[in-house]
Specification:
Elements (H helix, E strand, L loop, with lengths): L1 H12 L9 H4 L15 H4 L13 E2 L5 H8 L4 H4 L3 H5 L4 E2 L21 H19 L6 E3 L16 H9 L7 H11 L4 E3 L9 H10 L2 E4 L6 H14 L3 E11 L2 H6 L2 H19 L5 H4 L3 E8 L8 E9 L5 E9 L2 H21 L4 E2 L22 H15 L15
Parallel strand pairs: 1-2, 3-4, 4-5, 5-10, 6-7
Antiparallel strand pairs: 6-8, 8-9
Helix pairs in contact: 1-15, 7-8, 7-9, 8-10, 9-10, 11-13
């Protein structure tokens, strides 16, 4: 996914391809009344970093440069990789933080070694400082594009900054690799988006450190294929008061993500992320007759021949007038990294914008991009894609001093 994102940005800024799927690059935003005819591009409305200003760096378990990694991933064709081969070949990963007990199906060869997890945090912090110095960058953003870790629930070590840092020094087993990266970024004041369902920093200590350091954070788990379809369809069912008896979802996927998720402990993290979507959208406690007995099942199957071309198949059992049953079948033959890459770009640019605007802590207005959106403590997440988009655009309007669009009021015409 990371090499697909970088390659796409390099091609787009050369004018060799379009960044399709990126709201920040292709999307517009309405300002004022409909009769005002003010619909600028988002990238012209808010002061986003330009594609030309981006530098790239990252960590990986394997030492291959970005070009070799992209060829191995076999997501992009040679016609897209060849024009940027030199730039991709020059991009070499830093050694990764990797504790194999959290991702058992991978065996990294390009990894850091340190006595404690606290030392690992310091090593990552030094990487960040060195890369920014070498590339001449004034600020940075981190977006997690790595694997799904085993399911971890918050425990005592995650309850405060003090307890977490004690856990780092003592190599606490509930502190995973992704938490080390996130903690290092927060310490360095680097805004961070979590693209996996990992716990990472979605616990009291993480929220506390983000607020203390004035860092914008967002997550978790990129909303790409099957869950994207759920957040499109489920709001429509509820809007029309159509009932739902069951929703069966299965996936076949052959890339590294599929291999990792073939382990039941890692799949548990993804399952929890995917299963919460329908419940929050459909509100069974509010509409018990329509959604109180929904049977929701999710499966992910590793199938190497498919590679990055994931297939998500859904069987949806709905019911309508007088309770008569109906069915909907969805077969989404998608490309996982192609759907995720524009989300990485948008999150990097929008988190950088949030950081410069002085916004800190969880950025709920970026829920649009996630399967399991983080929220402020005590709040439930909003999963409806259309409500999420309205909140995102209204936040941009608010930043620029424009009126929010509420669709209330009356417009008069001559």
């Amino acid at each position: 996914m990371a090499t697909t994102f970088v390659a796409g940005c390099l091609l787009a800024r050369r004018g060799l391809a379009q960044p399709v799927g990126s709201l920040t690059q292709l999307g517009t935003i309405r300002l004022g009344k409909r009769t005002d005819d003010r619909v600028p591009m988002i990238k012209d409305f808010v002061p986003l970093a330009s594609l030309d200003s981006l530098e790239f760096a990252g960590w990986d378990l394997f030492p291959e440069n970005a070009y070799d990694a992209a060829v191995h991933a076999a997501v992009l064709e040679d016609r897209h990789l060849r024009p940027i081969q030199e730039e991709l070949s020059a991009l070499k990963p830093m050694q990764a933080v990797f504790y194999p007990e959290y991702v058992k199906r991978l065996h990294g060869t390009h990894v850091k070694s340190a006595p404690t997890k606290a030392d690992m945090v310091e090593a990552v912090r030094e990487d960040i400082r060195r890369v920014m110095r070498e590339k001449g960058c004034s600020r940075a953003v981190a977006v997690w594009c790595g694997s799904t870790e085993i399911y971890v629930e918050p425990s005592d070590v995650h309850q405060s900054v003090e307890s977490f840092e004690k856990g780092l020094r003592e190599n606490h087993p509930a502190i995973t690799s992704s938490m080390i990266y996130a903690w290092a970024c927060l310490k360095e004041g680097v805004p961070y988006a979590n693209g996996a369902p990992n716990l990472t920093f979605d616990f009291p200590a993480g929220h506390e450190l983000a607020r203390e350091r004035g860092v914008a954070i967002a997550g978790k788990d990129f909303k790409t294929g099957q869950t994207l379809m759920k957040t499109l369809l489920a709001p429509g069912f509820k809007a029309r008061m159509l009932g739902l008896n069951g929703w069966f979802s299965t996936n076949i996927l052959g890339n590294r993500d599929g291999e990792v998720l073939d382990d039941p402990e890692n799949f548990k993290s993804k399952e929890v992320s995917k299963l919460g979507v329908l419940e929050h959208i459909l509100q069974p406690e509010v509409y018990p007759d329509l959604y109180g007995k929904v049977y929701h099942k999710v499966r992910i199957n590793y199938y190497p021949p498919r590679g990055d071309e994931k297939e998500g198949w859904d069987n949806i059992d709905i019911f309508g007038w007088l309770g008569y049953p109906m069915q909907i079948k969805v077969d989404f033959l998608c490309r996982d990294s192609i759907l995720a890459a524009p989300l990485v770009l948008d999150l990097a640019l929008l988190l950088d914008l949030a950081q410069r605007a002085g916004l800190r802590g969880v950025q709920e207005w970026l829920s649009f991009y996630f399967k399991s959106p983080m929220t402020a403590p005590g709040l439930y997440p909003e999963h409806d894609l259309f409500i999420q988009l309205m909140k995102l655009k209204n936040t941009l309007r608010w930043m620029q001093g424009e009126d929010l669009i509420t669709h209330l009021g009356r417009e008069y015409y001559d």
